[in-house]
Amino acid sequence: MKIQRNILLNPGPATTTDTVKLAQLVPDICPREKEFAELLSALRQDLLKIVHGDPEKYTCVLFCGSGTLNMDVCLNSLLPADKKILIINNGTYSSRGVEICQYYNLPFIEMRLPFDEIVDFAELEKLLQENPDIYLVYTTHQETVSGLLNPIREIGALVHKYQGILVVDTTSTYALLPLDIEQDNIDFCMASAQKGIQAMTGLSYIIGSIAEIEASRHYPKRSYYCNLYLQYDFFKKNGEMHFTPPVQTIYAAKQALQEYFAEGETAKYHRHLRVHETILANLARLGFKTILPKEKQAGLVAAVKYPDDENWDFFKIHDYCYQRGFTIYPGRIAATNSFRLCSLGAIDVIDIENFFVVFEAALRYYQVSLPIRYN
Questions:
Q1: Listed residue (195, 176, 169) closest to 273, CA to CA
Q2: Is the Cα torsion angle 207, 208, 211, 216 positive or negative in sign?
Q3: Could you give the CA distance from residue 199 to residue 64 in angstroms, rounded to a whole number?
């Protein structure tokens, strides 16, 4: 089977291998069969291994849905009745956490920061001291719109000092940047299959403390489908997802994990890093500026300012590239229009070099001045 290979430079879903795509072509199976339960068990163990979790202390709980479902599950499931959530918000995805709290009427405090600033630890400690009812602290590891990397290890250490738990949205860093759930002071992290492991959309997973999940059985029940303990307990008793799983997507995830471990954590990280470096070098060659300085970037997303050129039209450039097999993605940070080039997925330096040939041709075709101009 010949499958057209598109290079996705958007922040997910990511480019996949043909072997992952074709892994979905399996005989039909009832997901309540023992064979499928064994597949799920192995999958959960492998996902836990990626963050080096001790299976005696941590577990992986699978859900059917996108990454936002994980946020919903953690925020509504892990808050005791008499406690508050603190959201460290310096970007779009942390803002989504705020919205989830608002929809559930969860008591929360928002520590709002500019999109290009990480938390001030003295201020964070002061907030934790003044609000002893804060139990769950939530942040995003990499804010995917800007590419900002938050210092979760240091945040987690401070949260634990005040007997809280740290929940981190690692959707855009899991299996991309090296993570160690215990060493990084994470109590719960999360991701979805279409990003770091380079699989398909529809499968998400939460990895976290067994003791905290067990304790949450006594917390207020705010959702039925999106309850972490309920799903965990069903896995524990039956080895299955409580509700119908995305069967074919799970077979793709199994194949993607085989490819992840074959490549290796370190080699995969360095591949994404060299892709990112190639993106930055070519942007600089053309005169483009990124929203964030390099030292604040996670090394996975380059958020690029629109040029000040009357001939620049993102959607025309997008369409030119898209017709030739390359996808770029728009974004807006504060009052700044931008687009993103991401180093996710099954891509390498040669793909970026080929992209910039097409991208530069698009700029010249639409008579955008080179090098790029900014007022």
A1: 176
A2: negative
A3: 14
Distance CA 241, CA 42 (A): 14
Question: Is residue 185 domain-shared with residue 270, that is, in the same domain?
Answer: no
Show the tokens assigned to 284: 């600089």
Residue-wise DSSP of 304-317: EEPPS-TT--HHHH
Q: Which CATH number covers residue 75? A: 3.40.640.10
Considering the domain architecture, whether residues 331 and 214 belong to the same structural domain is answered as no
CATH number of the domain within which 335 lies: 3.90.1150.10
Angle between helix 247-263 and 265-286 (nearest 10)? 90
Q: Is the peptide bond prior to 371 cis by the omega test (within 30 degrees of 0)?
A: yes
C-alpha angle 358-359-361 in degrees, rounded to nearest 5: 65
Position 112 pLDDT exceeds 90: yes
Tell whether 38 and 160 lie within a shared domain: yes
Point out the domain boundary residue: 210, 243, 262. 262
Q: What is d(CA 203, CA 193) in angstroms, rounded to the nearest whole number?
A: 6
pLDDT at residue 156 above 70?
Answer: yes
Q: What is the structure's pLDDT at 334?
A: 67
Using DSSP, state whether 269 is helix, strand or coil. Answer: helix
Same domain, 185 and 303: no
Looking at residue 150, its pLDDT comes to 97
Residues 54 and 66 in one domain: yes
Flag whether the pTM goes above 0.90. yes
Given a contact cutoff of 8 angstroms between Cβ atoms, the answer to whether 131 and 86 are in contact is yes
In order of 4, 87, 132, 156, the CA distances from 138 in angstroms are 40, 5, 16, 10
Separation of alpha carbons 2 and 19, rounded Å: 12
